[in-house]
């Protein structure tokens, strides 16, 4: 996650160079009109190009805005960074301390946590918030159930129900205390900006969005549909060509 967030602060020429390097690795069919080959490698590269789009969007100047009390309103990049810092510095520190006390094999648990647990966490938060915009008290339990129900859960045996409960409770506390322009994130959670920040973090932290359908469905696709044009039309066209879950039923993959 920090790697993609640091990409936001880089010079535009460096970001452009990274995009070009990804572009050069795409494999195309030989016949005309050329289309992307249906390969896992192309899926991975295209997902990374979507992350470059998001980083470019965060790096772009935002129009000045203010909250109701006249205070300068945080930019999208500031919102995402504030939440990421709370997760990595606050919640994660508390999680590590509790894991060392609560589990006999904390090392194995931490290893299993790298198997899409964090992106499942952010996606679970997005889904739970969408389902219960005003029922905040029920959100942590919904997130726990969503993570436990993830198809990837079977591949991380050390991440038990108790471990997930610990992680979600600490993360939710961090989200409640993360401040955007002096206002707790919980006060903003009914608007789209908080959900957008969570979706961006899910895409940035995911080790492989190309292999994680929930990230594509609940984070990447909504970002692609965002009215602020976070993803380029070219990236959205490629995603629709390579992922059947990106396009609507019956849609024909675009060519070119």
Structure overview:
By secondary structure, this protein is mostly helical. It has one domain (2-242). The protein has twelve helices and two strands, in the order H-H-H-H-H-H-H-H-E-E-H-H-H-H. A two-stranded antiparallel sheet has the order 1-2. A hairpin with a 2-residue loop joins strand 1 and strand 2 (183-184). The protein starts with a helix and ends in a 14-residue tail after the last helix.
Q: What's a concise summary of this model?
A:
The protein is mostly helical and 256 residues long. The chain has helices at 2-8, 12-24, 40-59, 76-102, 106-113, 117-131, 139-148, 161-177, 185-188, 192-205, 213-225, 233-242, and strands spanning 179-180, 183-184. The chain is globular, with a radius of gyration of 19 Å.
Quick tags:
256 residues; mainly alpha; two-stranded antiparallel ribbon; 12 helices; 2 strands; 2% strand
Task: Indicate the low-confidence ranges by residue numbers.
Answer: 252-256
Number of strands: 2
Shape assignment: globular
Structural class: mainly alpha
Order of helices and strands: HHHHHHHHEEHHHH
Beta content comes to under 5%
Radius of gyration: 19 Å
The major sheet is characterized as: 2 strands, antiparallel
Number of helices: 12
């Amino acid at each position: 996650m920090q790697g993609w967030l640091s990409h936001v602060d880089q010079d535009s020429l460096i970001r452009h160079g990274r995009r070009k390097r990804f572009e050069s690795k795409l494999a195309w069919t030989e016949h005309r009109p050329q289309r992307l080959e249906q390969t896992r490698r192309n899926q991975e590269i295209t997902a990374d190009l979507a992350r470059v789009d998001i980083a470019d969007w965060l790096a772009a100047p935002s129009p000045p805005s203010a909250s109701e009390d006249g205070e300068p309103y945080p930019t999208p990049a500031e919102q995402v960074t504030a939440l990421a810092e709370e997760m990595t510095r606050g919640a994660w520190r508390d999680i590590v301390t509790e894991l060392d006390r609560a589990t006999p094999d904390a090392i194995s648990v931490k290893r299993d946590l790298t198997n899409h647990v964090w992106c499942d966490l952010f996606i679970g938060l997005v889904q739970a918030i969408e389902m219960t915009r005003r029922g905040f008290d029920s959100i942590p339990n919904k997130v726990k159930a969503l993570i436990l129900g993830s198809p990837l859960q079977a591949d991380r045996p050390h991440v038990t129900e108790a471990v997930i409960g610990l992680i979600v409770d600490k993360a939710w506390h961090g989200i409640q205390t993360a401040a955007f322009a002096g206002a707790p994130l919980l006060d903003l959670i009914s608007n789209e900006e908080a959900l957008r920040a969570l979706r961006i973090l899910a895409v940035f932290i995911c080790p492989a969005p190309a292999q994680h359908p929930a990230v594509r469905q609940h984070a990447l696709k909504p970002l692609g549909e965002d009215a602020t044009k976070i993803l380029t039309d070219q990236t959205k066209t490629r995603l629709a060509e390579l992922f059947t879950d990106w396009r609507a039923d019956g849609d024909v993959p675009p060519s070119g």
